[in-house]
Design brief:
Blueprint: H1 7-27, H2 40-55, H3 62-71, H4 85-116, H5 123-133, H6 157-177, E1 182-184, H7 191-205, E2 217-222, E3 248-251, E4 254-256, E5 259-261, E6 266-268, E7 276-278, E8 282-287, E9 310-315, E10 325-331, H8 345-360, E11 364-366
Parallel strand pairs: 1-3, 9-11
Antiparallel strand pairs: 2-8, 3-8, 4-7, 4-11, 5-6, 9-10
Length: 370
C-alpha cells in the first residue's frame, strides 16, 4: 500500500513478537527460583563471577596509550600524534570506552557485594540484578542519569557484551598495529566523528590546493566484488583490499529494504525472506568540486549525478530517527526494466522513478540489525 517491500510485514510481526516477550518477562514473578533451586540473586552472582567478569577486556593503560599515540603519523601530513585527526579520534574513542568499561565493572562488583550483604541493596542495584537474571542490559550501562546515551543499544546481554569485546579488539589492534585496512564502523561511539576526521585529513593533505573543510564534500564508493570482503565485526579485516591513497574503507553495514547486486553494483529487490543484506566494503573519501587545483591521487572534480542516485541513509540502529543518523551514501539504483533502449529525457525519467522507489521502501544501511 505504501510501496514497502513485502518483507516489511514480516518485520512488523517480529517486532510485535519481541514486544510481547518483553512484556511477559517484565510481568513474571520476581522471586522465581533459578536453575538448580538457586535464588535469582545467587544465580546472578554465579553468572557475574564465572562468566561476565571474565568476559570484560582489560582496562587501557592511559600512560601507555599517550606514548603510543605520540608515535602515530600520517603518510601525507606533517603533523604527528593527536595533531592527526584520526589519531585524535582514536584517543577520544578509547576515553569513552574506558569510561563504559569502568561503569560495567563497578556495577558488577557492587552487585556481588550487595548479594553478599556487604553493602546496602539499593533500588538501582535490585533493578540491575533483575535485568541480569533476565539476560537484558541494565539501564545504567546504556544511559546516564540525564537520559543521554553513553554506550550502545542491544536487546540481549550476550550481544551487548560481545559487542564490547569486539569494540575493544578494534581499538586495541588499531593502537598496537597502526591503522587497519578496513574500519568496523559499528564499533565506534561517534561514527559521524570518524567520517569527519577522514574529511579533515584529506582537506589538510590538499593545503597547497587551497581546499577548505566547508567546501569539501563526502563521497563513497562500493568495493569491486572481486576485491572485497563481507564482515560484520572487528575481527575480520579487508586483507584483499588495497589501502586507498585517500580516504578509508569501512565494513560491517547491513542493507535493509533491498538487496545488492554485487557484479553490477546496484540496488535491487530483496530476495525471499532475507530481511538484511550484508553489505560489501565501502570506501569513504572526499572531493572539492570547486577547487581550482587537484593534487596527486585526488578524486576528479566532477561529482556524481545525484539525480540518478539514491541517497541511502546510514543509521546506528534499525530505527529511522535523526538522532541515530550517521551519514548518507549515494548508491546506484536498479535500472528500470522498461528503460532499455531509451535515450535522453525518457531514460532520465525512468531513472528518477527508480530512485523514488527506494525512498518509498525506506531502504537504509544499518550499523547493527538489533
Amino acid at each position: 500500500m505504501f510501496g514497502l517491500n513485502p518483507n516489511a510485514d514480516l518485520t512488523a510481526s517480529l517486532n510485535d513478537s519481541r514486544s510481547m516477550i518483553a512484556t511477559l518477562i517484565d510481568t513474571q514473578p520476581a522471586d522465581a527460583g533459578g536453575a538448580g533451586g538457586k535464588s535469582p540473586e545467587q544465580t546472578v552472582k554465579d553468572m557475574i563471577e564465572n562468566e561476565f567478569l571474565k568476559m570484560l577486556p582489560e582496562d587501557f593503560k592511559m600512560v601507555e596509550v599517550e606514548d603510543r599515540l605520540k608515535q602515530m603519523k600520517h603518510k601525507r601530513l606533517p603533523e604527528t600524534g593527536k595533531g592527526v585527526p584520526l589519531v585524535m579520534f582514536l584517543f577520544q574513542e578509547i576515553q569513552r570506552f574506558q569510561r563504559i568499561l569502568g561503569i560495567v565493572r563497578l556495577w558488577m562488583n557492587n552487585m556481588i557485594l550487595a548479594i553478599d550483604g556487604q553493602i546496602i541493596m539499593s533500588p538501582d542495584l535490585a533493578e540491575c540484578i533483575k535485568n541480569i537474571f533476565d539476560l537484558r542490559v541494565p539501564k545504567m550501562w546504556l544511559v546516564d542519569p540525564s537520559g543521554a546515551e553513553i554506550s550502545w543499544l542491544n536487546p540481549s546481554l550476550a550481544g551487548w557484551l560481545g559487542s564490547m569485546t569486539n569494540r575493544h579488539y578494534q581499538l586495541a589492534t588499531w593502537l598496537a598495529k597502526d591503522r587497519p585496512i578496513s574500519y568496523w564502523l559499528t564499533g565506534f561511539f561517534n561514527g559521524q566523528g570518524f567520517l569527519t576526521s577522514v574529511r579533515q585529513e584529506i582537506t589538510r593533505a590538499h593545503r597547497a590546493d587551497n581546499w577548505a573543510l566547508d567546501g569539501v564534500e563526502q563521497r563513497s564508493e562500493v568495493a569491486d566484488p572481486r576485491n572485497t570482503i563481507i564482515a560484520d565485526d572487528a575481527r575480520i579485516e579487508g586483507k584483499n583490499i588495497a589501502d586507498p591513497p585517500e580516504g578509508a574503507w569501512i565494513h560491517g553495514l547491513w542493507l535493509e529494504g533491498a538487496s545488492w547486486n554485487k557484479p553490477q553494483r546496484y540496488l535491487e529487490d530483496a530476495k525471499g525472506k532475507d530481511l538484511y543484506f550484508a553489505f560489501p566494503n565501502i570506501k569513504v573519501f572526499a572531493e572539492c568540486p570547486g577547487a581550482e587545483k587537484q593534487g596527486p591521487g585526488a578524486p576528479k572534480k566532477t561529482g556524481p549525478d545525484f539525480k540518478n542516485l539514491y541517497g541511502c541513509p546510514v543509521y546506528k540502529y534499525p530505527m529511522r530517527r535523526d538522532m541515530y543518523l550517521v551519514a548518507k551514501f549515494w548508491l546506484k539504483p536498479e535500472p528500470p526494466s522498461d528503460n532499455k533502449g531509451k535515450k535522453g529525457e525518457a531514460a532520465q525519467t525512468g531513472m528518477n522513478a527508480s530512485v523514488n522507489q527506494w525512498t518509498l521502501r525506506g531502504t537504509a544501511l544499518l550499523c547493527q540489525k538489533e
